[in-house]
């Protein structure tokens, strides 16, 4: 793969998804709009016979309480986390052992450990350096099919806020 993952800083905290398509099909279970993902993402991450991945548009459902991870926009196909090779961060936001960065294998637990040990996190800088070095494959490793930096920033900010002493009244 020759393309580099490029997550611009202005992408925000939740996810790196500046561009969206006009066609936003809702998840057949939770009814929330899903994020477009490519067939390459599905083929890389699904633990199913690849002939089950049809030539159609798919979406990623990020709703934590929804059992669906991927669905076809026509509603005929649904894949749950049991069909995916990795546990999905968006489905387990508070789980310290689920990868938030699939390319460089960072978890909330590893970030929490670094914050505890040295008082800060170097994970965003480390991932950014890896991206710039051409060592990421977010489209094939991350279940959302795009860069993880927005998710990582959110986890770092949440953990930093949890580690701060409460404000005095």
Please give a handful of descriptors for the protein shown.
globular, about 30% helix, 5 helices, 2 domains, disordered N terminus, single chain, about 170 residues, alpha+beta, N-terminal domain of TfIIb
User: Which regions are unreliable across 5 or more consecutive residues at pLDDT < 50?
Assistant: 1-5, 8-22
Task: Find the count of extended strands (DSSP E, 2+ residues).
Answer: 4
Count of structural domains: 2
The number of helical elements comes to: 5
How many strands, what sense, and barrel or not for the largest sheet? 4 strands, antiparallel
Radius of gyration: 17 Å
Overall geometry: globular
Distance between the termini: 54 Å
Roughly what is the average pLDDT, rounded to an integer? 86
Strand content is 5-15%
Physical arrangement of strands within the biggest beta sheet: 1-2-3-4
Class computed from helices, strands and strand pairing:
alpha+beta
Q: Fraction of residues in helices?
A: 25-40%
State the order of secondary-structure elements, H for helix, E for strand: EHEEEHHHH
